[in-house]
Design a protein that fits this description.
The complex is a heterotrimer of chains A (about 300), B (about 240) and C (about 260). With about 300 residues, chain A is α/β, with parallel strands linked by helices. Chain A contains 9 helices and 12 strands. In chain A, helix 2 crosses helix 3. Chain C is α/β, with parallel strands linked by helices and about 260 residues long. Helices cover about 40% and strands about 25% of the residues of chain C. In chain C, strands 6-7-8-3-9-10 form a 6-stranded mixed beta sheet, with helices on both faces. Chain C has a 4-stranded antiparallel beta sheet with strand order 2-1-4-5. The longest helix of chain C has 18 residues. Chain C starts with 6 loop residues before the first strand and ends in a 5-residue tail after the last helix. The chains are: A alpha/beta (about 300), B alpha/beta (about 240), C alpha/beta (about 260). Chains B and C meet through strand 1 and helix 2 of B and helix 7, helix 9 and helix 10 of C.
């Protein structure tokens, strides 16, 4: 009851109940219309825009006392944004937190989808900076809404066309547009396109919150999520030449880590939980054991 | 066979709104007809309204009163009251017109200017250009000019392009407004031959020829336009 | 020529408050026919164009279009989705300012290809080939296919806008002062190009212009507008060579002779 005393000035999970109900209604609508951007009355949060205010509001609205929360930023549990949001919910909701993907019931993320396949019952909450995939081609909100309503998505392919014309291939590597359940084109937020296939028919519920833009959208479990492409330039995910330097994992998304100022570098799992779990299971990468010393 | 052209009680005047609305009568009670295979010539002094009559028959000038009946394939159309679309169809299929001056279109080659009426009737491009070339050759237009736009041609050269364009089709009625005005004797003779060939093919021709030799060579009949002169009003 | 008009405009009227935009305009347009609407600035010709092309809701009157299935449909009783689909497949709209009709920050190829992608073309190579052919048709070097229109001259932009509109094989094209703002030599080239395309493709077009030379060169038929009313309407060469109305005579007599 000690913690309860600390919480006296806050409602559970910071937001008042009316606000949570308002956001839940928006979430329900978003689930009912997969990929459609539902406007909601985004609140001021005790953190700046760009720090995940949309994701935090969504998490606050779906979070219950029995949930176990995991927060990642760039796949890592220990980066500033992840640490501060995790601490925020520990303080205002007193929920259990974890870094383990499998143990979490709610995962708030900024850039990545965990490597470990999500299961039924889990909720993945994305922090979204710019929800409108058509924005950079059509600046008028009135027009983009109309285009969504009338399913006029030729413009999305114009963007991909430009990519191929300039680079010889589709060079968009993140925020790669997808079509949800054959209807709405959706921006998966700044996740790398490497993660796009994980959204397709995922068992977990995926919720997207954009605080500054005041939009919520969702991909319910088992929903088709198809990345846009051309017949002669099909969608492809990034491929990495070498495995994770620490755990030896292949077919995972890797981050480049600079080791020293002499050009030394290594590629390691962006998903820190996944990497640690593999190392605990005895998997060893070619730099495992050396890296910490060199880094120091 | 129906008479291709019947003009009945046609009157025409111009109202000059910019000059206090004065009305300039041109012709009235114009009545004549032209039969197939005949070349009728409009006669009379300059300014009497000969060109105006041709322009009315072509739908280029409006008609105040009266009828201009053009019959083709047993269908008779009154040009004086026809809608623009019918007039365009008549021009495409029935009435050809050689004006005094060629209205040039920028960047279009002489041979294509000539071929255009055939293309409009659906003749294939190559065939139309071949026909155009034959006619231009017959009118002694140097071949090096064929691929150039006629805007920079001399008056005589332009006139020959104009004649070729008018004669290229098998329109059953042909209107000729001084087609030989700026031609030399040799080319005038070619035009006379072309007109005779049209007559033999059963074309009805109506023309204005100031050149007496040409007129005598082709005319079956002179229609005296001064008989249609409208009484001048006091201005 | 077809036995049915493509477009039936019936008593279209547009008021801006108490002010008349255009009043009681009726006409029919047939396939392959080019109609010029001429008049001075403020005469209502652009209002009329917008009211016919579903860009501006008329105060009263109907506009019916013969769809590809042969049925006439009232444009203002159609759903918006269908209307917009019609506009980007069966219609074209060429703006006076090419920047209004182009995406200035995407390449020429994508500008031409956009309509193809909008109707579901998903083969990059084919889209690019078609775009390239169309650039050729409007006399733009095909090696400019990846350049953005903001690097193009005014005449090139206007030609690009035309290619972008024609790529889906529309049956009806609206043009609002297509040669306005271009140098005279550039105008002549554009006019000749448009004239050729209209003939080759059998397009019907409504061209709004204040330039009687443009009307003479492009159109079969002409409407003269003044103060929102159509004051004279007829075959283009008839209206220009034998103008009946005082205002038309004034317009025709105001042309500079070269």
């Amino acid at each position: 009851m000690n913690t309860h005393a600390q919480l006296a000035t806050y409602n559970f999970a910071y937001l008042d109940e009316q606000t949570k109900r308002m956001i839940r209604r928006a979430i329900l609508k978003a689930i009912a219309i997969p990929g459609y951007q539902v406007p909601f009355a985004s609140r001021e949060m005790p953190m700046p825009y760009g720090w995940g205010t949309g994701g935090v509001q969504v998490t606050a609205s779906v979070l219950g006392p029995d949930d176990t929360l995991k927060v990642i930023d760039q796949g890592a549990d220990d980066t500033t944004n992840a640490v501060s949001i995790r601490a925020f919910f520990q303080k205002v909701a007193n929920v259990a937190v974890t870094t383990s993907t499998a143990e979490a019931t709610i995962i708030q993320t900024r850039h990545r989808i965990p490597e470990e396949t999500l299961k039924e019952g889990q909720i993945l909450v994305y922090q979204v900076p710019i929800p409108e995939p058509l924005r950079f081609l059509e600046p008028r909100e009135t027009e983009t809404r109309k285009m969504h309503a009338l399913e006029e998505y030729g413009l999305m392919h114009v963007k991909l066309y430009e990519d191929i014309a300039k680079n010889g291939h589709i060079a968009t590597t993140y925020a790669y547009p997808v079509k949800v359940e054959g209807r709405y084109v959706m921006d998966p937020s700044p996740t790398p396109k490497f993660d796009n296939p994980k959204m397709h028919r995922s068992e977990a519920l995926q919720l997207f919150g954009a605080g500054r833009e005041k939009r919520i959208y969702a991909v319910p479990p088992y929903t088709d999520v198809v990345s846009l492409d051309f017949e002669d330039h099909p969608f492809e995910i990034q491929k990495f030449d070498e495995p994770c330097a620490l755990c030896g994992a292949r077919n995972v998304y890797l981050d480049e880590v600079i080791l020293n100022d002499k050009g030394g570098r290594m590629f390691v799992c962006s998903d820190t939980d996944h990497c640690e779990k593999r190392r605990a299971e005895g998997h060893v990468g070619h730099l495992a054991g050396e890296a910490p010393e060199t880094a120091q | 066979m129906a008479t291709p052209l019947v003009v009945s009680e046609v009157a025409k005047s111009f109202t000059m709104h910019l000059r206090d609305g004065i009305r300039l009568p041109v012709v009235e009670n114009v009545s004549f007809s032209v039969a197939a295979g005949e070349c009728a010539v409009l006669g009379g002094p300059s300014g009497i309204g000969k060109s105006s009559i041709l322009k009315m028959l072509y739908g280029n000038y409006s008609v105040d009163t009266g009828q201009v009946l053009i019959t083709h394939n047993d269908v008779t159309v009154d040009i004086a009251s026809a809608d623009p679309r019918s007039v365009l169809t008549i021009r495409r299929d029935v009435v050809g017109y050689v004006s005094q001056f060629l209205r040039t279109v920028p960047r279009v080659a002489a041979v294509d200017v000539v071929a255009e009426p055939l293309l409009a009737k659906g003749v294939a491009h190559e065939e139309a250009r071949d026909c155009a070339g034959d006619l231009l050759a017959r009118l002694n237009l140097p071949e090096r000019l064929w691929s150039l736009p006629p805007a920079t041609f001399s008056g005589g050269e332009q006139q020959r392009v104009n004649i070729a364009r008018g004669f290229i089709t098998d329109h059953p009625l042909l209107l000729l407004d001084e087609p030989t005005a700026s031609l030399d004797a040799a080319n005038r003779a070619v035009v006379v031959d072309l007109i005779r060939a049209k007559k033999e093919a059963g074309t009805a021709l109506l023309g204005i020829f100031h050149d007496q030799d040409v007129r005598e060579a082709v005319a079956d009949r002179i229609i005296d336009v001064s008989l249609f002169s409208a009484p001048k009003e006091a201005a | 020529m077809s036995d049915h008009p493509l477009l039936r405009v019936n008593a279209v009227t547009k008021f801006y408050g108490a002010r008349v935009g255009c009043r009681d305009v009726s006409f029919e347009l047939w396939p392959g026919e080019v109609l010029a609407v001429v008049g001075e600035s403020g005469s209502g010709k652009t209002t009329l164009l917008n009211a016919i092309s579903t860009r501006l809701l008329p105060t009263s009157g109907t506009v019916e279009y013969r769809m590809r299935d042969g049925q006439f449909r009232d444009l203002y009783r159609m759903g918006e989705a269908e209307r917009r689909f019609l506009m980007r497949t069966d219609w074209g709209f060429v703006h006076q300012n090419p920047a209004d009709g182009l995406r200035m920050t995407v390449s020429a190829g994508a500008n031409v290809g956009e309509r193809l992608m909008a109707i579901g073309d998903r083969h990059y190579g084919n889209i690019r080939d078609t775009a390239s052919q169309w650039l050729g048709r409007v006399e733009i070097d095909t090696d400019r296919i990846d350049d953005q229109p903001r690097d193009f001259s005014g005449g090139m932009r206007q030609r690009l806008q035309i290619a972008r509109n024609l790529v889906t094989g529309p049956r009806l094209v609206f043009m609002d002062e297509p040669t306005g703002g271009l140098d005279v030599s550039v105008q002549a080239r554009l006019l000749d190009l448009v004239r050729g395309l209209v003939n080759d493709l059998g397009l019907a077009a409504i061209v709004v212009t204040h330039d009687l030379a443009v009307a003479r060169l492009l159109s079969h038929r002409m409407m003269v507008m003044k103060d929102g009313n159509v004051i004279e309407h007829g075959l283009t060469d008839r209206v220009l060579d034998d103008p009946r109305e005082p205002y038309t005579q004034l317009l025709v007599s105001s042309i500079l002779q070269v």
